[in-house]
Amino acid sequence: MLGLMAKLTEQTVREALSGVPYPGFSRDIVSFGLVKAVEVEGGKARVSLALTTSDPEVAPRLKAAVEEALRAVEGLEEPEVMVAVKASGSEDGKSAAGEAEAGAGNNPMQKVRSAIAIASGKGGVGKSTFTVNLACALDRQFRAEGREGAVGIMDCDIYGPTVPLMLGVNQRPEVEDGFIQPLENFGIQVMSMGFLVDEHTPVIWRGPMVMKTIQQFAQNVAWGDLEVLLVDLPPGTGDAQLSLVQTVPLEGAVVVTTPQPASVNVARRGALMFDKVSVPVLGVAENMSYLLEEATGERQYLFGEGGGRATADYLEVPLLGQVPLDGRIREGGDMGVPIVLSDPDLPCAEAFNAIAASLKGRLASRA
Ligand SMILES: Nc1ncnc2c1ncn2[C@@H]1O[C@H](COP(=O)(O)OP(=O)(O)O)[C@@H](O)[C@H]1O
Ligand SMILES: [Mg+2]
C-alpha cells in the first residue's frame, strides 16, 4: 500500500484548489486568479491566496474551505494556507462605497417605482447604447406629462462601464449621510461602477473582488423620486449577473439582442437566470437590426434577420422594437450626447421613442 501512495505534486494541489468555489459563487478560486503561489515539499504544501474584499467573513471562510479541500488530497500531510486581504475601501471611488456602508439600513430604492434590468447574453450588442437612449426617450415622455427627473440609470457593468461616457458625466460622486449622490446630466440621474473600478484594474480581478463592494454600492445610492431606474447589467448570465439581479429589487428585465437567428440560444440562458430570481422579462429589443437607406426606405439586413422575434417568441414576451444600425447612434455615444436628444426626429431615434412608449405602457398596466 505504501508503495502506491501518490507523490504530491504542485499539479495535484492546484487541481484540488480548482474545486474550491469563491464564497457565494459557483466559480472556483483558481479561475478567479486568487491563487498566488503553490509550493510543495515532500508531503507538505503551502498555498498563498490574495483577494480584495471589504467583507471580513470571506478570508476565514475561504481559508477553511481550502484547508478542507487540501486535506482530501492523497499524500498531503500538512497544508499551510495563507490568505492576504487587501481592503477595498481605501482610495478613489472605492471609498464612496465604504463610507456608504454607514448609511445602510435605510432602503434608498424605496423612492424608485420600477427598476428595470437591461440584459444581454453577450457584450457588444449595444446594451449600454440602448440603455442610455431608452432613458432619454423615457425622460422626454415623462417630461411631456409634466413629470421631471423621473428617470435614472445605474451602470453595473463592471467590465465596461460606458454609461458615463455616453451621457457625458465624468465626476466623482459625493457621499452625504452615508449615501452616494447620483450625478445628473440631461435630467437623467446616473450612477456607474465606472466610478468604482478604475480602468487599470485587470478584468479578472474585477468580478469576484469587488462584487461585495458593488452590492453595497448598488444598495447605497440616494436615488431621487424615480419612475424608472434602468440597470445596465454586465453582459452574460453568470454568477456576477445573478448576484446583482438578487441585490437590486427589480420589477422586470428587458433583453437586448442582435438580429442573428442564433441569438435565441443566448436568450435561453438569460431566461433561466431571471427565472431563478422570479424577475419577469418584460420584452425583447433588437439592436443593429438593419441599415436604412433613408432616401428609398430600403432596409439592408447586414447581420441577418429574425433574432429579436425568435427570442421574444421563445421567452413568450413582446418584441418591443427594432433599432437600426446607424453611425450617428455610435457618434452620439462617443460624444456623450445620445441621438434621442441630439436628433429626436431621425428614424433611429424614433425607434427608441417607440420602444420607450411601449415599455412605459407596459409598466403602467402592471401598476
Ligand atoms: N444601433 C447602433 N448603430 C450603430 N452603432 C451602434 C448601435 N448600437 C450600438 N452601437 C455601437 O456599438 C458599440 C457597442 O455598443 P455598446 O452599447 O457599448 O454595447 P454593449 O453595452 O452591449 O457592450 C459602440 O461603439 C456603440 O456606439
Ligand atoms: Mg455596455
Short synopsis of the structure:
With 367 residues, the chain is an alpha/beta fold. Helices cover 37% and strands 23% of the residues. The strands form three sheets. Strands 4, 5, 8, 9, 10, 11, 12, 13 and 14 form a nine-stranded mixed beta sheet that branches.
Architecture overview:
- With 367 residues, the protein is of the alpha/beta class.
- It folds into two domains: 2-86, GMP Synthetase, Chain A, domain 3 (2-Layer Sandwich), CATH 3.30.300; 95-366, 3-Layer(aba) Sandwich (Rossmann fold), CATH 3.40.50.300.
- It is 37% helix and 23% strand.
- The chain contains twelve helices and 14 strands.
- It has helices spanning 10-17, 58-71, 94-100, 127-144, 163-167, 203-219, 239-247, 263-276, 307-315, 327-335, 339-342, 347-366, and strands at 35-41, 44-52, 78-86, 112-119, 151-155, 175-176, 179-180, 183-185, 188-192, 226-232, 252-257, 281-293, 298-300, 319-325.
- The strands form three sheets. Strands 4, 5, 8, 9, 10, 11, 12, 13 and 14 form a nine-stranded mixed beta sheet that branches.
- A hairpin with a 4-residue loop joins strand 12 (281-293) and strand 13 (298-300).
- Helix 3 (94-100) runs parallel beside helix 6 (203-219) and helix 8 runs parallel beside helix 9 (307-315).
- It is elongated and about 75 Å long.
- The chain starts with 9 loop residues before the first helix and ends with a helix.
- 44% of the residues are buried.
- Mean pLDDT is 85; it is low at 88-105.
- It binds adenosine-5'-diphosphate and magnesium ion.
- Magnesium ion (MG) is lined by residues 127-128, 157, 160, 162.
- The site of adenosine-5'-diphosphate (ADP) has 19 residues, from helix 4, strand 12, strand 14 and helix 10.
